[in-house]
Amino acid sequence: MIKNPYRGKFVVIEGLDGSGQSTQAALLRDFLVKKGYKVVLTKEPTLDSKAGKKIRKILDKKIEIKPKKLQELFAQDRKEHLENLIIPSLKEGKIVISDRYFFSSFAYGAADGLDLDWLIKVNKEFLLPDLTFILKVKPEVCLERIEKRNKERTLFEEKEKLAKVWQIYKILPKKFKNVKVIEGEKSIEEVFSQVKNIVRSKQNI
Predict the structure, then answer these.
(1) pLDDT of amino acid 15
(2) Centroid of chain to Cα 1
(3) Is 16 helix (H, G, I), strand (E, B) or coil?
(4) pLDDT tens digit string along 59-86?
(5) Is 134 helix (H, G, I), strand (E, B) or coil?
(6) 2-201 adopts what CATH topology?
(7) Distance CA 20, CA 69 (A)
(8) What torsion do the CA atoms of 54, 4, 192, 56 make, to the nearest 10 degrees?
(9) Of 189, 191, 190, 188, residue with least CA distance to 180
(10) pTM, two decimal places
(11) CA atoms within a 13 Å half-sphere pointing along the CA-CB vector of 60
């Protein structure tokens, strides 16, 4: 992975489906904008690339594909995401907050039976975030939240699969710098308070 060489800062929020990462990413954007920072909020997979559009269909169970091919699509979408949005924004000195990044590929890909070292290798040319949050929420709690959305469950939204995904997420802070695990089962405000305190403690953000 490549350390961020640009003026801007790159922050990622991760977690199981239903853990609340999209909510926390939006709250962090609003908090930083109020502080006067220029912020870009984005998410993966994107819907901008051909690969991203295909990923969406796979996750919605409209197309079937082998796990390895799926992760190659994620890497292609990520490459375009970095080139077209993330890196240009960082060069301009903006803070980029991404709802999911390559940590999702590691956790979900390994839970799908792929080798974690291979997954890391596929993503090794990409930027390492300056700060990553992983929201810790039990699979059953995530599924309760997902049920309330009244939408069809996507490919990984089953308890056994999410439990496997969490086992991988748990080990990522030991493998990568600046990865923080946050207790995600508290109220939205309490979870964000943890995020905010860590962001404030980083003098360069």
Answers:
(1) 95
(2) 16
(3) coil
(4) 887 888 999 999 999 999 999 999 999 9
(5) strand
(6) Rossmann fold (3.40.50)
(7) 27
(8) 0
(9) 191
(10) 0.92
(11) 9
